[in-house]
Amino acid sequence: MSIGPTLPPPMEELSELLQLRRAKLDAWRSEGTDPFGSSFPGTTSVASVIADFAEEKTVRVAGRIVAFRDMGKSIFGHFLDQTGRLQFYANKQSLGGNAADPTQPADPSKLESFRRLDLGDIVGLEGTLFITKTGEKTVKVTKFALLSKSLRPLPSAWHGLSDDETRYRQRYLDLIVNEEVRRTFVLRSRIVSEIRRYLEGRGFLEVETPMMQAIAGGAAAQPFVTHHKALNLQLFLRIATELYLKRLLVGGFEKVFELNRNFRNEGLSRKHNPEFTAIEVYQAYADYEVMASFVEGLIIHLAQNVIGTLQIPTGPVPEDGSPRKTLDLTGPWPRKRYRDAVKEAAGADWFDLAPEGRKARAAELGVEIIPGLLDHEVTNHVFEKLVEAKTVNPVFITHLPKELVPLAKQNSEDPSVVDVFELLINGQEISPGYSELNDPLVQRQRLEEQVGEEVHNLDEDFLLALEHGMPPAGGIGIGIDRLVMLLTGAESIRDVILFPLLRPR
RNA sequence: GCCGCGAUAGCUCAAUGGUAGAGCAGUUGACUCUUAAUCAAUUGGUUGUAGGUUCAAGUCCUACUCGCGGCACCA
User: Fold this and answer.
1) Nucleotide nearest to A220 (CA to C1')
2) Which domains are delineated in chain A?
3) Beta carbons of A324 and A318 less than 8 angstroms apart
4) Residue–nucleotide distance: A20 CA to B27 C1' (Å)
5) I need a surface site. Which of A15, A218, A347, A493 has the fewest CB within 10 A?
6) What does the alpha-carbon distance between residue A415 and residue A135 come to, in Å, rounded to a whole number?
Protein backbone atom coordinates (compact mmCIF):
# COMPACT_ATOMS: atom_id res chain seq x y z
CA MET A 1 0.00 0.00 0.00
CA SER A 2 1.63 3.22 -1.12
CA ILE A 3 0.94 6.67 0.20
CA GLY A 4 -0.20 7.71 -3.25
CA PRO A 5 0.20 11.06 -4.93
CA THR A 6 -3.38 12.23 -4.41
CA LEU A 7 -3.39 13.48 -0.86
CA PRO A 8 -6.57 15.38 -0.15
CA PRO A 9 -6.33 19.13 -0.65
CA PRO A 10 -6.25 21.26 2.49
CA MET A 11 -9.58 22.13 4.02
CA GLU A 12 -9.70 25.71 2.82
CA GLU A 13 -9.53 24.59 -0.82
CA LEU A 14 -12.50 22.25 -0.49
CA SER A 15 -15.90 23.38 -1.59
CA GLU A 16 -18.45 24.07 1.09
CA LEU A 17 -20.16 20.80 0.23
CA LEU A 18 -17.04 18.78 0.97
CA GLN A 19 -16.07 20.79 4.05
CA LEU A 20 -19.41 20.08 5.67
CA ARG A 21 -19.02 16.36 5.13
CA ARG A 22 -15.54 16.39 6.62
CA ALA A 23 -16.76 18.37 9.57
CA LYS A 24 -19.17 15.55 10.31
CA LEU A 25 -16.23 13.18 10.77
CA ASP A 26 -15.32 15.06 13.95
CA ALA A 27 -18.91 15.06 15.14
CA TRP A 28 -19.05 11.28 14.87
CA ARG A 29 -15.66 10.85 16.52
CA SER A 30 -16.53 13.18 19.37
CA GLU A 31 -19.36 10.86 20.35
CA GLY A 32 -17.10 7.83 20.13
CA THR A 33 -18.07 6.54 16.68
CA ASP A 34 -15.43 5.54 14.14
CA PRO A 35 -16.85 6.97 10.89
CA PHE A 36 -15.15 4.19 8.92
CA GLY A 37 -16.44 1.49 11.20
CA SER A 38 -15.72 -2.17 11.54
CA SER A 39 -17.47 -5.32 10.43
CA PHE A 40 -21.21 -5.69 10.71
CA PRO A 41 -21.83 -9.45 10.78
CA GLY A 42 -25.06 -11.36 10.57
CA THR A 43 -26.75 -9.30 7.86
CA THR A 44 -29.50 -10.44 5.53
CA SER A 45 -29.75 -9.25 1.95
CA VAL A 46 -32.54 -6.89 0.96
CA ALA A 47 -33.79 -9.46 -1.54
CA SER A 48 -34.23 -12.11 1.13
CA VAL A 49 -35.73 -9.63 3.61
CA ILE A 50 -38.39 -8.93 1.00
CA ALA A 51 -38.79 -12.56 -0.02
CA ASP A 52 -39.12 -13.88 3.56
CA PHE A 53 -40.91 -10.85 4.90
CA ALA A 54 -42.77 -11.17 8.22
CA GLU A 55 -43.95 -8.27 10.35
CA GLU A 56 -42.24 -7.87 13.72
CA LYS A 57 -39.29 -9.96 12.57
CA THR A 58 -35.92 -8.60 13.64
CA VAL A 59 -33.33 -8.19 10.87
CA ARG A 60 -29.82 -6.87 10.40
CA VAL A 61 -29.15 -5.23 7.04
CA ALA A 62 -26.46 -3.02 5.55
CA GLY A 63 -26.05 -0.77 2.55
CA ARG A 64 -25.70 2.73 1.18
CA ILE A 65 -28.21 5.45 2.00
CA VAL A 66 -29.76 6.66 -1.26
CA ALA A 67 -32.74 8.63 0.07
CA PHE A 68 -33.30 10.44 3.35
CA ARG A 69 -36.57 12.13 4.28
CA ASP A 70 -36.33 13.89 7.60
CA MET A 71 -39.75 14.75 9.03
CA GLY A 72 -38.64 16.06 12.36
CA LYS A 73 -39.60 13.50 14.94
CA SER A 74 -39.44 10.67 12.41
CA ILE A 75 -37.24 9.87 9.47
CA PHE A 76 -37.84 7.78 6.37
CA GLY A 77 -35.24 6.80 3.83
CA HIS A 78 -33.99 4.08 1.55
CA PHE A 79 -30.75 2.18 1.50
CA LEU A 80 -29.32 0.11 -1.29
CA ASP A 81 -27.47 -3.19 -1.12
CA GLN A 82 -26.31 -5.49 -3.92
CA THR A 83 -29.76 -7.02 -4.20
CA GLY A 84 -32.01 -3.98 -4.04
CA ARG A 85 -33.52 -1.06 -2.14
CA LEU A 86 -35.31 -1.19 1.18
CA GLN A 87 -37.08 1.56 3.10
CA PHE A 88 -36.07 2.30 6.65
CA TYR A 89 -37.90 4.26 9.33
CA ALA A 90 -36.68 5.72 12.59
CA ASN A 91 -38.19 7.78 15.35
CA LYS A 92 -37.35 8.71 18.93
CA GLN A 93 -38.93 5.62 20.46
CA SER A 94 -37.59 3.10 17.96
CA LEU A 95 -34.01 4.31 18.26
CA GLY A 96 -33.75 5.62 21.79
CA GLY A 97 -36.47 3.67 23.51
CA ASN A 98 -36.15 0.84 26.00
CA ALA A 99 -37.77 -2.20 24.38
CA ALA A 100 -37.87 -4.10 27.68
CA ASP A 101 -39.72 -1.28 29.40
CA PRO A 102 -41.66 0.96 26.97
CA THR A 103 -42.78 3.18 29.83
CA GLN A 104 -39.25 4.52 30.22
CA PRO A 105 -38.60 7.81 28.40
CA ALA A 106 -36.74 7.55 25.12
CA ASP A 107 -33.24 8.93 24.61
CA PRO A 108 -33.57 11.64 21.91
CA SER A 109 -29.81 11.82 21.29
CA LYS A 110 -29.92 8.61 19.27
CA LEU A 111 -32.27 10.14 16.73
CA GLU A 112 -30.07 13.25 16.63
CA SER A 113 -27.09 11.09 15.69
CA PHE A 114 -29.13 9.25 13.09
CA ARG A 115 -30.15 12.60 11.61
CA ARG A 116 -26.47 13.37 10.99
CA LEU A 117 -26.30 10.62 8.34
CA ASP A 118 -25.84 11.81 4.75
CA LEU A 119 -26.90 10.47 1.39
CA GLY A 120 -24.12 8.13 0.33
CA ASP A 121 -23.15 6.98 3.83
CA ILE A 122 -22.90 3.23 4.31
CA VAL A 123 -24.76 2.02 7.38
CA GLY A 124 -25.63 -1.15 9.21
CA LEU A 125 -29.18 -1.25 10.52
CA GLU A 126 -30.93 -3.48 13.01
CA GLY A 127 -34.66 -3.29 13.43
CA THR A 128 -38.06 -4.86 13.13
CA LEU A 129 -40.01 -5.26 9.93
CA PHE A 130 -43.37 -3.62 9.33
CA ILE A 131 -45.55 -2.44 6.48
CA THR A 132 -46.41 1.22 6.12
CA LYS A 133 -49.87 2.62 5.47
CA THR A 134 -49.03 2.81 1.79
CA GLY A 135 -48.01 -0.84 1.79
CA GLU A 136 -44.23 -0.60 1.59
CA LYS A 137 -42.09 -3.15 3.37
CA THR A 138 -39.93 -1.24 5.83
CA VAL A 139 -37.43 -1.82 8.61
CA LYS A 140 -38.02 0.20 11.79
CA VAL A 141 -34.50 0.95 13.01
CA THR A 142 -33.71 0.13 16.62
CA LYS A 143 -29.91 0.22 16.30
CA PHE A 144 -27.63 1.60 13.64
CA ALA A 145 -23.92 1.70 12.95
CA LEU A 146 -22.11 4.08 10.62
CA LEU A 147 -19.94 1.72 8.58
CA SER A 148 -18.44 4.23 6.18
CA LYS A 149 -18.83 7.97 5.97
CA SER A 150 -19.15 9.29 2.42
CA LEU A 151 -17.18 12.48 1.93
CA ARG A 152 -18.66 13.34 -1.45
CA PRO A 153 -22.21 13.93 -2.64
CA LEU A 154 -24.04 11.32 -4.69
CA PRO A 155 -25.27 12.24 -8.18
CA SER A 156 -28.93 13.15 -8.30
CA ALA A 157 -31.06 10.16 -7.39
CA TRP A 158 -33.87 11.42 -9.56
CA HIS A 159 -32.07 12.39 -12.76
CA GLY A 160 -29.46 9.68 -12.42
CA LEU A 161 -26.02 10.12 -13.93
CA SER A 162 -26.12 10.54 -17.69
CA ASP A 163 -22.77 12.10 -18.57
CA ASP A 164 -21.10 9.18 -20.36
CA GLU A 165 -17.59 10.26 -19.49
CA THR A 166 -18.33 10.33 -15.76
CA ARG A 167 -20.30 7.09 -16.03
CA TYR A 168 -17.31 5.25 -17.49
CA ARG A 169 -14.54 6.92 -15.49
CA GLN A 170 -16.44 6.62 -12.21
CA ARG A 171 -18.41 3.49 -12.94
CA TYR A 172 -19.08 3.02 -9.23
CA LEU A 173 -21.32 6.11 -9.34
CA ASP A 174 -23.10 4.76 -12.40
CA LEU A 175 -23.70 1.50 -10.54
CA ILE A 176 -24.99 3.21 -7.41
CA VAL A 177 -27.35 5.55 -9.21
CA ASN A 178 -28.48 3.79 -12.39
CA GLU A 179 -30.36 0.61 -11.68
CA GLU A 180 -30.45 -0.59 -15.30
CA VAL A 181 -26.65 -0.43 -15.39
CA ARG A 182 -26.49 -2.66 -12.33
CA ARG A 183 -28.90 -5.03 -14.02
CA THR A 184 -26.85 -5.18 -17.23
CA PHE A 185 -23.70 -6.22 -15.40
CA VAL A 186 -25.51 -8.78 -13.28
CA LEU A 187 -26.88 -10.22 -16.52
CA ARG A 188 -23.42 -10.23 -18.05
CA SER A 189 -22.12 -12.23 -15.13
CA ARG A 190 -24.99 -14.71 -15.39
CA ILE A 191 -24.56 -15.07 -19.15
CA VAL A 192 -20.87 -15.91 -18.74
CA SER A 193 -21.51 -18.36 -15.96
CA GLU A 194 -24.36 -20.00 -17.87
CA ILE A 195 -22.12 -20.42 -20.92
CA ARG A 196 -19.63 -22.29 -18.75
CA ARG A 197 -22.35 -24.47 -17.24
CA TYR A 198 -23.79 -25.24 -20.68
CA LEU A 199 -20.43 -26.29 -22.06
CA GLU A 200 -19.31 -28.25 -19.03
CA GLY A 201 -22.65 -30.05 -19.07
CA ARG A 202 -21.84 -31.21 -22.59
CA GLY A 203 -18.42 -32.56 -21.75
CA PHE A 204 -16.28 -29.57 -22.74
CA LEU A 205 -13.11 -28.81 -20.85
CA GLU A 206 -12.21 -25.22 -20.04
CA VAL A 207 -8.53 -24.48 -20.58
CA GLU A 208 -6.21 -21.51 -20.27
CA THR A 209 -3.58 -20.84 -22.89
CA PRO A 210 -0.96 -18.10 -23.08
CA MET A 211 -2.05 -14.50 -23.27
CA MET A 212 1.56 -13.46 -23.85
CA GLN A 213 2.85 -15.00 -27.02
CA ALA A 214 6.05 -14.71 -29.01
CA ILE A 215 3.96 -14.84 -32.20
CA ALA A 216 0.42 -13.47 -32.07
CA GLY A 217 -1.48 -15.69 -34.46
CA GLY A 218 -4.99 -16.92 -35.15
CA ALA A 219 -6.31 -13.67 -36.60
CA ALA A 220 -5.12 -10.77 -38.72
CA ALA A 221 -5.08 -7.94 -36.23
CA GLN A 222 -2.41 -5.63 -34.86
CA PRO A 223 -1.17 -6.96 -31.52
CA PHE A 224 -0.08 -5.04 -28.43
CA VAL A 225 3.64 -5.37 -27.80
CA THR A 226 5.26 -6.00 -24.43
CA HIS A 227 8.60 -7.21 -23.16
CA HIS A 228 9.88 -9.84 -20.77
CA LYS A 229 12.99 -8.61 -18.94
CA ALA A 230 14.65 -11.79 -17.73
CA LEU A 231 14.43 -13.50 -21.12
CA ASN A 232 14.93 -10.20 -22.96
CA LEU A 233 12.05 -11.24 -25.13
CA GLN A 234 9.54 -9.28 -27.15
CA LEU A 235 6.10 -10.65 -26.50
CA PHE A 236 2.66 -9.89 -27.86
CA LEU A 237 -0.69 -9.96 -26.15
CA ARG A 238 -2.77 -12.55 -27.87
CA ILE A 239 -5.25 -11.61 -30.56
CA ALA A 240 -6.95 -15.03 -30.56
CA THR A 241 -6.81 -18.38 -28.79
CA GLU A 242 -7.17 -20.49 -31.92
CA LEU A 243 -3.68 -21.84 -32.50
CA TYR A 244 -3.15 -23.02 -28.94
CA LEU A 245 -6.56 -24.68 -28.70
CA LYS A 246 -5.79 -26.59 -31.89
CA ARG A 247 -2.55 -27.81 -30.33
CA LEU A 248 -4.76 -29.27 -27.60
CA LEU A 249 -6.84 -31.10 -30.23
CA VAL A 250 -3.58 -32.61 -31.42
CA GLY A 251 -2.85 -33.52 -27.81
CA GLY A 252 -6.05 -35.50 -27.55
CA PHE A 253 -8.44 -33.12 -25.81
CA GLU A 254 -11.52 -33.53 -27.97
CA LYS A 255 -13.86 -30.89 -26.60
CA VAL A 256 -12.19 -27.74 -25.30
CA PHE A 257 -13.00 -24.11 -24.84
CA GLU A 258 -11.37 -20.98 -23.55
CA LEU A 259 -13.36 -17.97 -22.37
CA ASN A 260 -11.19 -14.99 -21.65
CA ARG A 261 -9.66 -11.76 -22.88
CA ASN A 262 -8.16 -11.04 -26.28
CA PHE A 263 -6.34 -7.83 -27.20
CA ARG A 264 -6.33 -6.08 -30.54
CA ASN A 265 -4.50 -2.85 -31.23
CA GLU A 266 -7.27 -1.22 -33.20
CA GLY A 267 -9.45 1.84 -33.12
CA LEU A 268 -12.28 2.16 -30.62
CA SER A 269 -15.91 2.25 -31.60
CA ARG A 270 -19.39 1.45 -30.46
CA LYS A 271 -18.56 -2.17 -31.29
CA HIS A 272 -14.83 -2.34 -30.47
CA ASN A 273 -12.84 -2.20 -27.25
CA PRO A 274 -9.11 -3.01 -27.47
CA GLU A 275 -9.45 -5.70 -24.84
CA PHE A 276 -12.52 -7.82 -25.29
CA THR A 277 -13.77 -11.16 -24.09
CA ALA A 278 -14.19 -14.05 -26.48
CA ILE A 279 -14.92 -17.71 -26.27
CA GLU A 280 -13.53 -20.21 -28.70
CA VAL A 281 -14.89 -23.75 -28.72
CA TYR A 282 -13.41 -26.74 -30.56
CA GLN A 283 -14.96 -30.15 -30.98
CA ALA A 284 -13.05 -33.01 -32.59
CA TYR A 285 -14.83 -35.05 -35.26
CA ALA A 286 -17.44 -32.29 -35.73
CA ASP A 287 -17.84 -29.86 -38.61
CA TYR A 288 -19.22 -26.37 -39.13
CA GLU A 289 -22.80 -27.66 -39.43
CA VAL A 290 -22.60 -29.30 -36.03
CA MET A 291 -21.12 -26.11 -34.62
CA ALA A 292 -23.85 -23.95 -36.14
CA SER A 293 -26.49 -26.00 -34.37
CA PHE A 294 -24.42 -25.77 -31.21
CA VAL A 295 -24.21 -21.96 -31.32
CA GLU A 296 -27.92 -21.70 -32.05
CA GLY A 297 -28.73 -23.97 -29.12
CA LEU A 298 -26.42 -22.05 -26.79
CA ILE A 299 -27.72 -18.57 -27.60
CA ILE A 300 -31.36 -19.65 -27.43
CA HIS A 301 -30.61 -21.33 -24.11
CA LEU A 302 -29.05 -18.12 -22.77
CA ALA A 303 -31.93 -15.96 -23.93
CA GLN A 304 -34.50 -18.27 -22.37
CA ASN A 305 -32.69 -19.01 -19.13
CA VAL A 306 -30.90 -15.75 -18.37
CA ILE A 307 -33.02 -13.09 -20.09
CA GLY A 308 -36.27 -15.06 -19.94
CA THR A 309 -37.46 -14.36 -23.47
CA LEU A 310 -36.56 -14.82 -27.13
CA GLN A 311 -38.00 -11.40 -28.00
CA ILE A 312 -35.13 -8.98 -27.44
CA PRO A 313 -35.55 -5.19 -27.49
CA THR A 314 -33.07 -3.52 -29.83
CA GLY A 315 -32.20 -0.26 -31.56
CA PRO A 316 -32.41 3.25 -30.15
CA VAL A 317 -35.03 4.05 -27.54
CA PRO A 318 -37.69 6.12 -29.36
CA GLU A 319 -38.03 9.72 -28.15
CA ASP A 320 -41.81 9.56 -28.22
CA GLY A 321 -41.90 6.84 -25.57
CA SER A 322 -43.06 4.11 -27.93
CA PRO A 323 -41.52 0.68 -27.35
CA ARG A 324 -38.22 -0.30 -28.94
CA LYS A 325 -38.12 -2.62 -31.88
CA THR A 326 -37.59 -6.26 -30.99
CA LEU A 327 -35.69 -9.04 -32.66
CA ASP A 328 -36.80 -12.64 -32.50
CA LEU A 329 -34.38 -15.42 -31.58
CA THR A 330 -36.90 -18.22 -32.09
CA GLY A 331 -35.29 -21.16 -33.91
CA PRO A 332 -34.59 -22.80 -36.19
CA TRP A 333 -32.44 -20.03 -37.63
CA PRO A 334 -32.28 -19.90 -41.42
CA ARG A 335 -29.14 -20.87 -43.33
CA LYS A 336 -28.34 -18.86 -46.40
CA ARG A 337 -25.50 -19.16 -48.87
CA TYR A 338 -23.28 -16.11 -49.27
CA ARG A 339 -23.90 -15.93 -53.02
CA ASP A 340 -27.65 -16.08 -52.55
CA ALA A 341 -27.61 -13.39 -49.87
CA VAL A 342 -25.58 -11.09 -52.13
CA LYS A 343 -27.89 -11.75 -55.08
CA GLU A 344 -30.95 -10.91 -53.02
CA ALA A 345 -29.41 -7.62 -52.00
CA ALA A 346 -27.63 -6.63 -55.22
CA GLY A 347 -29.54 -8.30 -58.06
CA ALA A 348 -29.83 -11.85 -59.35
CA ASP A 349 -27.35 -11.02 -62.12
CA TRP A 350 -24.65 -9.76 -59.74
CA PHE A 351 -22.23 -12.59 -60.40
CA ASP A 352 -22.85 -12.41 -64.16
CA LEU A 353 -21.61 -8.82 -64.31
CA ALA A 354 -18.10 -7.87 -65.30
CA PRO A 355 -15.97 -6.57 -62.38
CA GLU A 356 -16.45 -2.98 -63.60
CA GLY A 357 -20.18 -3.59 -63.77
CA ARG A 358 -20.16 -4.73 -60.16
CA LYS A 359 -18.41 -1.55 -59.07
CA ALA A 360 -21.00 0.54 -60.93
CA ARG A 361 -23.85 -1.45 -59.40
CA ALA A 362 -22.36 -1.08 -55.91
CA ALA A 363 -22.22 2.68 -56.36
CA GLU A 364 -25.85 2.71 -57.55
CA LEU A 365 -26.80 0.83 -54.40
CA GLY A 366 -25.09 3.42 -52.25
CA VAL A 367 -22.11 1.29 -51.27
CA GLU A 368 -18.94 3.34 -51.26
CA ILE A 369 -16.18 1.63 -53.22
CA ILE A 370 -12.62 2.79 -52.66
CA PRO A 371 -10.47 2.56 -55.80
CA GLY A 372 -8.17 -0.44 -55.93
CA LEU A 373 -10.48 -2.92 -54.29
CA LEU A 374 -10.22 -6.46 -55.57
CA ASP A 375 -13.31 -7.87 -57.19
CA HIS A 376 -14.19 -10.16 -54.29
CA GLU A 377 -13.68 -7.23 -51.92
CA VAL A 378 -16.25 -5.20 -53.85
CA THR A 379 -18.71 -8.05 -53.41
CA ASN A 380 -17.88 -8.29 -49.74
CA HIS A 381 -18.42 -4.55 -49.22
CA VAL A 382 -21.85 -5.00 -50.72
CA PHE A 383 -22.40 -7.97 -48.42
CA GLU A 384 -21.36 -6.03 -45.33
CA LYS A 385 -23.39 -2.91 -46.08
CA LEU A 386 -26.51 -4.47 -47.61
CA VAL A 387 -26.74 -7.84 -45.88
CA GLU A 388 -24.83 -7.83 -42.60
CA ALA A 389 -25.73 -4.29 -41.52
CA LYS A 390 -29.42 -4.81 -42.29
CA THR A 391 -29.83 -8.18 -40.62
CA VAL A 392 -32.13 -8.18 -37.61
CA ASN A 393 -33.15 -11.76 -36.79
CA PRO A 394 -30.45 -14.44 -36.75
CA VAL A 395 -29.22 -15.93 -40.01
CA PHE A 396 -26.30 -18.25 -40.74
CA ILE A 397 -24.42 -17.22 -43.87
CA THR A 398 -22.60 -20.24 -45.31
CA HIS A 399 -20.38 -21.11 -48.26
CA LEU A 400 -18.22 -17.99 -48.01
CA PRO A 401 -15.65 -17.44 -50.77
CA LYS A 402 -12.36 -18.99 -49.77
CA GLU A 403 -10.50 -15.71 -50.20
CA LEU A 404 -12.33 -14.33 -47.17
CA VAL A 405 -11.50 -17.21 -44.81
CA PRO A 406 -8.04 -18.62 -45.32
CA LEU A 407 -8.04 -20.97 -42.33
CA ALA A 408 -11.08 -23.13 -43.06
CA LYS A 409 -11.58 -26.27 -45.12
CA GLN A 410 -12.54 -25.92 -48.73
CA ASN A 411 -15.93 -27.33 -49.69
CA SER A 412 -15.60 -30.74 -51.34
CA GLU A 413 -18.16 -29.96 -54.06
CA ASP A 414 -17.23 -26.32 -54.73
CA PRO A 415 -13.58 -25.57 -53.95
CA SER A 416 -14.16 -21.83 -54.45
CA VAL A 417 -16.01 -21.69 -51.13
CA VAL A 418 -15.17 -22.88 -47.63
CA ASP A 419 -17.07 -24.88 -45.02
CA VAL A 420 -17.84 -22.09 -42.62
CA PHE A 421 -20.70 -20.09 -41.26
CA GLU A 422 -21.00 -16.54 -40.13
CA LEU A 423 -23.83 -15.95 -37.68
CA LEU A 424 -25.39 -12.52 -38.17
CA ILE A 425 -27.77 -10.99 -35.66
CA ASN A 426 -28.87 -7.39 -35.41
CA GLY A 427 -26.35 -6.04 -37.89
CA GLN A 428 -23.35 -7.66 -36.23
CA GLU A 429 -21.28 -10.74 -36.82
CA ILE A 430 -21.86 -12.58 -33.57
CA SER A 431 -20.05 -15.82 -34.28
CA PRO A 432 -17.98 -17.40 -37.00
CA GLY A 433 -17.67 -21.17 -37.23
CA TYR A 434 -15.40 -23.38 -39.31
CA SER A 435 -14.71 -26.86 -40.35
CA GLU A 436 -11.13 -26.49 -39.23
CA LEU A 437 -8.31 -26.99 -41.67
CA ASN A 438 -6.22 -29.95 -40.49
CA ASP A 439 -4.02 -30.55 -43.53
CA PRO A 440 -0.62 -29.30 -42.31
CA LEU A 441 0.73 -28.74 -45.81
CA VAL A 442 -2.23 -26.68 -46.98
CA GLN A 443 -2.19 -24.86 -43.66
CA ARG A 444 1.47 -23.96 -44.11
CA GLN A 445 0.77 -22.66 -47.59
CA ARG A 446 -2.15 -20.51 -46.41
CA LEU A 447 -0.21 -19.11 -43.46
CA GLU A 448 2.76 -18.33 -45.68
CA GLU A 449 0.46 -16.41 -48.01
CA GLN A 450 -0.93 -14.57 -45.02
CA VAL A 451 2.36 -13.51 -43.44
CA GLY A 452 3.92 -12.71 -46.80
CA GLU A 453 7.46 -11.40 -46.42
CA GLU A 454 7.43 -11.57 -42.67
CA VAL A 455 8.38 -15.22 -42.38
CA HIS A 456 9.45 -14.73 -38.75
CA ASN A 457 5.72 -14.39 -38.00
CA LEU A 458 5.06 -17.93 -39.13
CA ASP A 459 4.10 -20.07 -36.17
CA GLU A 460 6.32 -23.05 -36.93
CA ASP A 461 5.52 -24.66 -33.62
CA PHE A 462 1.83 -24.73 -34.53
CA LEU A 463 2.58 -26.26 -37.93
CA LEU A 464 4.78 -28.85 -36.27
CA ALA A 465 1.85 -29.79 -34.06
CA LEU A 466 -0.47 -30.16 -37.06
CA GLU A 467 2.02 -32.49 -38.73
CA HIS A 468 1.52 -34.89 -35.85
CA GLY A 469 -2.15 -35.07 -36.83
CA MET A 470 -5.10 -32.98 -35.71
CA PRO A 471 -8.48 -34.67 -35.83
CA PRO A 472 -11.04 -33.10 -38.12
CA ALA A 473 -12.89 -30.62 -35.95
CA GLY A 474 -15.46 -27.92 -35.83
CA GLY A 475 -14.64 -24.63 -34.15
CA ILE A 476 -16.46 -21.46 -33.25
CA GLY A 477 -15.74 -18.11 -31.70
CA ILE A 478 -18.21 -15.80 -30.00
CA GLY A 479 -17.54 -12.24 -29.00
CA ILE A 480 -18.92 -12.21 -25.47
CA ASP A 481 -19.23 -8.44 -25.26
CA ARG A 482 -21.28 -8.33 -28.43
CA LEU A 483 -23.37 -11.28 -27.30
CA VAL A 484 -24.11 -9.45 -24.04
CA MET A 485 -24.96 -6.31 -26.04
CA LEU A 486 -27.36 -8.37 -28.10
CA LEU A 487 -29.05 -10.06 -25.16
CA THR A 488 -29.29 -6.95 -22.97
CA GLY A 489 -30.23 -4.57 -25.77
CA ALA A 490 -27.13 -2.39 -25.19
CA GLU A 491 -26.27 0.04 -27.99
CA SER A 492 -22.58 0.43 -27.15
CA ILE A 493 -19.90 -2.04 -26.12
CA ARG A 494 -18.98 0.44 -23.34
CA ASP A 495 -22.28 -0.32 -21.72
CA VAL A 496 -21.35 -3.99 -21.23
CA ILE A 497 -17.70 -3.49 -20.19
CA LEU A 498 -17.33 -2.22 -16.63
CA PHE A 499 -14.23 -0.16 -17.31
CA PRO A 500 -13.91 0.50 -21.05
CA LEU A 501 -10.65 2.01 -22.31
CA LEU A 502 -10.62 5.83 -22.15
CA ARG A 503 -7.86 8.33 -22.57
CA PRO A 504 -6.45 9.18 -19.14
CA ARG A 505 -7.55 12.56 -17.92
C1' G B 1 -5.56 9.17 -38.25
C1' C B 2 -9.94 12.16 -40.73
C1' C B 3 -14.94 14.63 -40.39
C1' G B 4 -18.97 16.32 -37.37
C1' C B 5 -21.26 17.34 -32.51
C1' G B 6 -20.65 18.44 -27.39
C1' A B 7 -18.39 20.30 -22.39
C1' U B 8 -22.27 25.97 -17.79
C1' A B 9 -23.19 24.70 -9.72
C1' G B 10 -22.20 18.03 -6.66
C1' C B 11 -26.23 15.92 -10.47
C1' U B 12 -29.87 17.15 -14.57
C1' C B 13 -30.44 21.27 -17.59
C1' A B 14 -31.59 26.88 -19.11
C1' A B 15 -29.44 31.58 -20.66
C1' U B 16 -30.64 37.36 -29.04
C1' G B 17 -22.98 39.34 -28.09
C1' G B 18 -25.44 43.23 -22.84
C1' U B 19 -26.52 41.76 -14.59
C1' A B 20 -24.79 33.57 -15.28
C1' G B 21 -30.29 31.05 -13.75
C1' A B 22 -33.78 26.72 -12.43
C1' G B 23 -34.98 21.83 -10.32
C1' C B 24 -32.72 18.23 -7.29
C1' A B 25 -28.68 17.69 -3.68
C1' G B 26 -26.56 20.91 0.38
C1' U B 27 -27.40 24.48 4.73
C1' U B 28 -31.10 26.65 8.52
C1' G B 29 -36.04 26.25 10.42
C1' A B 30 -41.17 23.67 10.72
C1' C B 31 -43.49 18.87 10.52
C1' U B 32 -44.23 11.38 14.11
C1' C B 33 -46.56 6.95 7.78
C1' U B 34 -42.99 9.64 4.11
C1' U B 35 -41.49 7.74 -0.62
C1' A B 36 -39.18 12.77 -6.72
C1' A B 37 -42.07 14.02 1.02
C1' U B 38 -44.05 19.00 1.80
C1' C B 39 -43.54 24.29 3.37
C1' A B 40 -40.26 28.71 4.36
C1' A B 41 -35.53 30.83 3.97
C1' U B 42 -30.66 30.23 2.00
C1' U B 43 -25.38 28.83 0.25
C1' G B 44 -23.00 27.32 -4.00
C1' G B 45 -19.80 29.40 -10.63
C1' U B 46 -12.07 30.51 -13.06
C1' U B 47 -19.09 28.67 -18.12
C1' G B 48 -13.21 22.21 -20.17
C1' U B 49 -7.95 24.86 -21.05
C1' A B 50 -5.10 28.81 -23.49
C1' G B 51 -5.27 32.75 -26.65
C1' G B 52 -7.93 36.28 -29.96
C1' U B 53 -12.06 39.69 -31.88
C1' U B 54 -15.26 43.33 -29.34
C1' C B 55 -17.08 49.07 -25.54
C1' A B 56 -18.87 44.19 -23.84
C1' A B 57 -17.90 36.89 -24.81
C1' G B 58 -21.15 31.17 -21.68
C1' U B 59 -22.45 32.98 -26.70
C1' C B 60 -18.11 34.87 -32.25
C1' C B 61 -12.82 33.13 -34.06
C1' U B 62 -8.15 29.93 -33.43
C1' A B 63 -5.53 26.07 -31.03
C1' C B 64 -5.57 22.35 -27.46
C1' U B 65 -7.86 18.61 -23.82
C1' C B 66 -11.60 15.06 -22.94
C1' G B 67 -16.13 12.66 -24.49
C1' C B 68 -19.89 11.06 -28.18
C1' G B 69 -21.28 9.72 -33.34
C1' G B 70 -19.50 8.45 -38.16
C1' C B 71 -15.39 7.08 -41.45
C1' A B 72 -10.67 4.57 -41.75
C1' C B 73 -8.38 0.34 -39.28
C1' C B 74 -10.40 -4.50 -37.80
C1' A B 75 -10.16 -12.39 -42.05
Assistant:
1) B75
2) 11-154 (2.40.50.140), 176-333+393-495 (3.30.930.10)
3) yes
4) 9
5) A15
6) 70
For A162-200, the pLDDT digits (tens) are 999 999 999 999 999 999 999 999 999 999 999 999 999
* A158 contacts A151 by C-beta, under 8 angstroms: no
Q: Which bases of strand B sit closer than 7 A to a protein CB?
A: 1, 10-13, 23-27, 30-38, 43-44, 65-75
In A358-427, where do the E strands start and end? 395-401, 417-425
Asked if A474 and A287 count as a contact pair (C-beta separation under 8 A), the reply is: yes
Residue by residue, DSSP assigns A148-197 as E---SPPPPTTT----HHHHHHTHHHHHHH-HHHHHHHHHHHHHHHHHHH
* Mean pLDDT across A375-397: 91
Q: Calculate the angstrom distance between C1' of B7 and CA of A46.
A: 39
Q: Greater confidence, A6 or A411? A: A411
* Predicted confidence (pLDDT) per residue in A445-500, tens digit: 888 887 776 777 889 999 999 999 999 999 999 999 999 999 999 999 999 999 99
Cβ atoms of A258 and A242 closer than 8 Å: no
Q: What is the pLDDT of residues A48-104, one digit of tens each?
A: 999 999 999 999 999 999 999 999 999 999 999 999 999 999 999 899 876 666 677
Q: DSSP strand E in A195-265: where?
A: 205-206, 212-213, 225-228, 233-237, 255-263
Amino acid A4: pLDDT: 32
DSSP A252: T
Asked if A274 and A261 count as a contact pair (C-beta separation under 8 A), the reply is no
Higher per-residue confidence, A314 vs A294: A294
CA-to-C1' distance for A161 and B71, Å?
Answer: 30
Nearest nucleotide (C1') to alpha carbon of A161: B11
The separation, in Å, between residue A172 CA and nucleotide B34 C1' comes to 28
CA A279 to chain centre: 13
Round and report the angstrom distance from CA (A413) to C1' (B58): 69
Which nucleotide is nearest, taking the CA of residue A477 and each C1'? B75
> Separation of CA A420 and C1' B71 in angstroms?
29
Minimum CA–C1' distance nucleotide for A136: B35
A242 φ, ψ to 5°? -50, -50
Nearest nucleotide by C1' position to the A131 CA atom: B33
